[in-house]
Amino acid sequence: MSKKVFIKTYGCQMNVYDSKRMADVLKPHGYSVSESSDDADLVILNTCHIREKAAEKVYSEIGRLKQIKTAKAAQGNDMYIAVAGCVAQAEGPEMMRRAPTIDMVLGPQTYHRLPDMLKTAGEQRAAGRNSARVLDTEFPTETKFDHLPEESAYSGPAAFLTVQEGCDKFCTFCVVPYTRGAEYSRPIADIVEEAKRLVASGVVEITLLGQNVNAYHGALADGGTANLGDLIHALDQIEGLGRIRYTTSHPRDMDDTLINAHRDVASCMPYLHLPVQSGSNAILDAMNRKHTRESYFDIIDRLRAARPDIALSSDFIVGFPGETDQDFEDTLDLVRRVKYAQAYSFKYSPRPGTPASVIEQQVDESVKSERLARLQALLNEHQLEFNTNSIGREMDILLEREGKLEGQLLGRSPYLQAVHVDVTSHENTLDADADKPYSGFMGKLVRVRITEAGPNSLKGELVGALH
Ligand code: 5AD
Ligand code: SF4
Q: Running DSSP on this structure, what letter comes out for residue 37?
């Protein structure tokens, strides 16, 4: 019988990837993906635990789902609620106690066991329970990657591909080493095979994912290991793969092979998300980052020497315990020196079980808010300046979806800027269909002249199609 699953994803791109793979795992068991929880037989919340707010949102969503589940039960229809991801991993048993409406809790490493869990849950519900009680948050010895189905339920020109998972760095503020476990790298042959399948299904751009993606050290067929730079060289050989990106990187693992890949590999995009977190050496030390502001500047210099136009991005935490005004000024100074094309910044949020959460000198909420506002104003200024500098330039844009306006498609520049492209003006309509003369451009790399820039996106005109 055909059934529907609705998956709501919170947090990082790894969760987006995992959600898609959960849908792939369920497909052979009769589940198709639904866009809404209203008509779903199974709802999966794929959760994020990185900051407090993320977990709170999950509990309020469960409250909403409970009403739907109860209404359905009154009509004799079954609905299952599953919580997956990092909140599930960190707080599974507590979640089940706090929200008895949850049927299943599964960690990020056990989603390949979903069909078995569903079977058990079905048996428990058939035995008369309102909710099942299935919990699986192990770190099993087999990996979820060994169970990926050949066919994916998804398509589109830009795809994610997980190459590495977990983290051994133990930054003192971060839950990831506890929720995602130890570092693991997939063998290079498996990744190349998955990438080939993606390209065969129309994918032009692949973003390699890992919590510490540049710590990648995957097994080679001959017994050696490959680092991320080697992997990028290998993937560049795949015909039809136009763009390679990777995220998220740690400054400590930015080696020369990888830096030089930005110079030598045409498909390796000139964009790097390299979180620094703070510009103060005292705070970096307290965060256990194991890099300094100086070593970070050195990496940036080497990257810019290899690829002068590289666009940089970062994550920042303000109000880490013990952060003084001077520490914060050091962060602003670092930002002025590096000049990021874009960045993410957060107020420090104490995470249970992490070393920083028990440091006594926590920073006042009002100070955090004020610092965050100042930092974001500076980052926004630089982002707008970066975007404005794009006006008049020609760039290759990968068109990913329809824009809001008729005749407008939305894509990404090499520097990951969102670009609205007017495709109607160009006479080359490729293999157009009559209703939408521009639809032939969808999923293609095209040449675009940038005409306007805003804080979050660009506008441009089509100059020509590339392939
Ligand atoms: N508080 C605030 N921000 C955090 N991050 C990770 N843990 C915390 C925390 N406890 C941020 C970091 C990281 C990004 C994914 O989330 O900047 O790079
Ligand atoms: Fe968290 Fe640090 Fe690991 Fe990144 S490197 S996942 S911030 S512990």
A: S
Query: In this structure, what CATH number is given to the domain that contains residue 152?
Result: 3.80.30.20
Identify the residue with better confidence: 51 or 392: 392
158 neighbors 398 (Cβ within 8 angstroms): yes
Residue 443 has pLDDT above 70, yes or no: yes
Residue 114 has pLDDT above 80, yes or no: yes
CB atoms within 10 A of CB 54: 17
Residue 460: CATH number of its domain:
2.40.50.140
State the Cα–Cα distance between residues 379 and 313, nearest whole angstrom.
10
**Residue bearing the CA closest to ligand 2, atom 5:** 169
Domain of 369 in residue numbering reads as 144-388
The type of residue at 244 is I
- Decide: 88 in ligand 2 pocket, CB within 6 A: no
Does 181 contact ligand 2 (Cβ within 6 A)? no
pLDDT of residue 437: 59
Which domain CATH number covers 117?
3.40.50.12160
Q: Which ligand is nearest to the CA of 313?
A: 1
Task: Look at residue 221 in the predicted model and tell me its pLDDT.
Answer: 86
Question: How much distance in Å is there from the Cα of 349 to the middle of ligand 2?
Answer: 14
Contact 49 CB / ligand 2 (< 6 Å)? no
Shortest-distance ligand to the CA of residue 274:
1
Q: Is residue 250 in contact with ligand 2, taking CB distance under 6 Å?
A: yes
pLDDT: which is higher, 55 or 60: 60
Supply the mean pLDDT for the chain: 92
Kindly state if the Cβ of 426 falls inside 6 Å of ligand 1: no
- Evaluate: CB of 171 within 6 angstroms of ligand 2: yes
pLDDT value, residue 351: 93
Is residue 287 domain-shared with residue 150, that is, in the same domain?
yes
CB neighbours (10 Å) of residue 163? 26
Between CA 410 and CA 413 the distance in angstroms is 10
Q: What is the pLDDT of residues 96-109, one digit of tens each?
A: 999 999 999 999 99
Domain co-membership, 260 together with 378? yes
447 and 464 Cβ atoms separated by less than 8 Å = yes
